[in-house]
Specification:
The complex is a heterodimer. By secondary structure, chain A is mainly alpha-helical. Chain A has seven helices and three strands, in the order E-E-E-H-H-H-H-H-H-H. The two termini of chain B are 15 Å apart. Classes of the chains: A mainly alpha, B mainly alpha. Strand 3 of chain A pairs antiparallel with strand 1 of chain B. The complex binds protoporphyrin IX containing FE. The site of protoporphyrin IX containing FE (HEM) has 26 residues of chain B, from helix 6, helix 8, helix 9 and helix 12.
């Protein structure tokens, strides 16, 4: 049964929870099946695939490349393109704070409980993902291949070649891109779809998610010796990391 | 009398499960109310919230990974030695001479990766279904903290085998932390327990990994589940009300819940008619 509610902030909405059923057996059975499937799948993996263990730690031998676990490789990828304080601390910190702030920016209850909330939600998500991926991949390639004189490559070295202090290429330019891409995305989505707050937040979350995924994939599968761009099949095992026991 | 009856029709079984198998509506209510684990749930849930394609069960599976990690982790603690000299050899020992050692270590590793992925997917599900909207704002914030704790748990565990992968991942991580503006040096020392990676680093990260972070995780997950209940259980669709419609006050969901349980517990009340004992 649908009911009309008066929210504290005077927002009038209709809640539609619909028919209710008993947790036992309807939910408990789903949970049991899910838990068993995951237990079985993990057991199979544990039998078939060994967790890696390589040589004893050796401070004398630096592996090349030295990589963090996969979920930090997006950040490690950023590290190649900007000042370490930005990539390692400020960006992840800002991401967590902005994520936590989402519900305090998008405060309307309308659209709760519906995938993508509005008919525009899914098209906006797809557009934002492609828009972000094109920018991120483009910038990574640019920073890798842009000639900067004397065999050097990258945006920052080029700027230094023209006499700019390192801070311009390492801090200022990355900050400009990291604000311009989501800002331009929000403007486009607002113009093209006449988007409301929720739909703009969808675009921005998708920007975060797509950046995370693209950077993580690049860092994991496309960075080889000396963290240079390679194809996934060219990566091999890093130098200085031997033996899988 | 069948085997099932023999097993269940005695004082001991009934002292645990007061109502027997939940085959009537009243017993279905009681089994949820009386069980500590099941009591995390409400007695009844909207059919809409049950669809697998709505939540994909991702939050539940995240906590299931945590349970598996706790069990396999305790097993590994029996054999793992948190000393720079012995850590790596103790892993070799687990892999080669401990019964089920290799299995338990592999399981611990794959469940850890699975948990990171599941928590990220859960957050993404909650986001795209708009389930962070009022009144669930704070539970979303708790979620962001849970995400951080999940990363930290996984990363502190990565150091423990004390192999080349571990050592250099920590090197990269500590350098990142050390680049913090102003307090970088202090953070670096705090992370390493000194000025270089060594025994103090290992014991520090081991302690965080096996006791401090799991405790934090348990407290936060409890708060998270509590809030799911108090915020009116899993979200269901909310639409804009057409302006001309009449306003109806609704019971806050938590009170509706409590009322339902009270009705079920008092045999005379409500729509949960008790069945006569057979
Ligand atoms: C250790 C990590 C976590 C665990 C074990 C966990 C567990 C759960 C469970 C079991 C539910 C019930 C519904 C469902 O399964 O989808 C839930 C709901 C919820 N979670 Fe999490 N969660 C975790 C992390 C997060 C994160 C990272 C976020 C967001 C940043 C989050 C935000 C929420 C919100 C807002 C709800 C209510 C959703 C609704 O009403 O539809 N949780 N969580």
């Amino acid at each position: 049964m649908a009911r009309v509610l008066q929210h504290e902030e005077e927002e009038r909405v209709i809640e539609d929870p619909g028919e209710r059923v008993h947790v036992w057996p309807h939910l408990v059975s789903i949970e049991l099946v899910g838990a068993l499937i995951y237990l079985l799948a993990l057991s199979l993996m544990a039998i078939l695939i060994r967790a890696p263990l390589v040589d004893l730690a050796n401070p004398e031998v630096t592996p090349n490349p030295a990589k963090a676990p996969w979920y930090f490789l997006g950040l490690q990828e950023l590290l190649l393109h900007m000042h370490p304080a930005l990539a390692g601390v400020i960006v992840p910190g800002a991401v967590l704070i902005l994520l936590a702030a989402i519900p305090y920016i998008d405060r309307s209850r309308v659209g709760t409980g519906i995938w993508f909330s509005t008919p525009k939600g899914l098209p906006i998500t797809k557009f934002s993902a492609v828009y972000t991926a094109v920018w991120v991949i483009g910038l990574v390639l640019l920073d890798e291949f842009l000639p900067a004189g004397e065999g050097a490559h990258g945006i920052s070295p080029l700027l230094e070649l023209y006499g700019f202090p390192p801070a311009v290429g390492d801090i200022f330019v990355p900050l400009v891109f990291m604000t311009f891409i989501p800002w331009s995305l929000a403007v486009i989505v607002k113009r093209r779809w006449n988007a409301n707050t929720r739909e703009i937040i969808i675009a921005l979350y998708t920007f975060f998610l797509a950046s995370f995924v693209v950077l993580t994939v690049i860092g994991t599968a496309f960075r080889g010796h000396s963290m240079q761009l390679v194809w996934p099949w060219e990566i091999g095992t890093p130098e200085g990391v031997m033996g899988h026991y | 009398m069948g085997l099932w009856q023999k097993l269940t029709n005695n004082r001991f079984f009934k002292s645990i499960y007061r109502e027997g198998y939940p085959d009537t509506d009243r017993k279905r209510v009681m089994v949820v109310i009386n069980s500590l684990a099941l009591h995390l749930h409400p007695v009844r849930v909207p059919k809409k919230a049950l669809r697998v394609s709505y939540t994909w069960g991702l939050g539940g599976l995240s906590v299931w990974m945590f349970v598996i990690l706790t069990i396999t982790g305790v097993f590994l603690m029996f054999y793992y030695i948190p000393s720079v000299k012995d850590a790596w050899w103790s892993i070799i020992n687990i892999n080669t001479s401990v019964y089920f050692g290799s299995f338990m270590r592999n399981m611990h590793r794959w469940a850890a990766h699975a948990m990171v992925i599941l928590v990220l997917l859960h957050m993404t599900r909650v986001f795209y279904t708009g389930s962070y909207k009022p009144p669930r704002e704070f539970n979303w914030v708790l979620g962001v903290v849970l995400l951080t704790v999940t990363f930290l748990l996984s990363f502190t565990g990565y150091l423990l085998p004390w192999d080349q992968l571990a050592y250099w991942a920590i090197t990269v991580g500590a350098q990142m932390g050390g680049s913090t503006p102003i307090i970088g040096k202090q953070i670096n020392v705090a992370l390493l327990g000194g000025h270089q990676i060594g025994q103090p680093t290992l014991i520090r990260w081991y302690t965080l990994h096996v006791i401090f972070l799991p405790l934090i995780m348990i407290v936060l997950v409890s708060m998270h589940f509590w809030r799911v209940r108090k915020d009116g259980n899993i979200s269901t669709p909310v639409y804009a009300a057409p302006p001309e419609e009449e306003e109806v006050q609704e019971l806050p969901a938590a009170r509706a819940d409590a009322q339902e349980e009270a009705e079920a517990a008092a045999p005379e009340g409500g729509d949960e008619e008790p069945e006569p004992e057979s």
